[in-house]
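Notes from the pairing session

We agreed to fold both candidates in a single pass and log them together. This is the raw record for the first candidate, unedited. Please don't reformat it; downstream parsing expects exactly this layout.

Candidate A
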Amino acid sequence: MDPQNQNTSLQRLQNVEKRIVRVLELASSVMDEWASPSGPRKELVNNHCSEFMQLIKDIQVTLREEIKSACEYRPFEKCDYVPRISNEICCKKLDHVIAQLDEMKHTIEGYHTTA
């Protein structure tokens, strides 16, 4: 890998780091909004969630590209490692989404019982 590619790769990874910080800020803001005594402002939560999801997608794409560019050779062409790991990651993502939906359902039920 030549120095110029290393530099641009490093810059892309630094941008990913900044996006991760922003994702954490957004998540924190949404949690603060949900904890607000006056209740969450729907539009603000929706905007933060949309930005959160877009940043996650951007991070994922950039990291995937960086990993692919770092692996310039393929010693095992018929290896199923990548698809297997990809499936495992998808399963973990689904588990996480299901857990988050369950938490949201629980929170909504809590609001309905207190109202």
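Candidate B (folded immediately after A)
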Amino acid sequence: MHRQQALAIEEEERNFQLDQSKLYQKGDPGTVQGIVKEIITVGYFMKLPDGREGLLPCMELGCTGGIPLLTRLFKVGDEITVRQQKMYDGGKDKLFAKKDST
């Protein structure tokens, strides 16, 4: 089972293409520009204009993640348009990149 899972992840890393047309674009209502601060296995930690930090999960981009794939999509310092859902429990804000996200 683990071998099959590893093969599926390798296949996704080689073949995944990000569909830019489904992502928020700069200037879309209700969005902000976040800067990639760190890449982790499950997504991106981002610095937001209001000084807060948020997590953009890889599932938001339509992939299962992994450092090699996520590094290919965006680099530390890249700007990504996101919708921010503030979390007031001390945790990182939730971020959404796809137009059809809730």
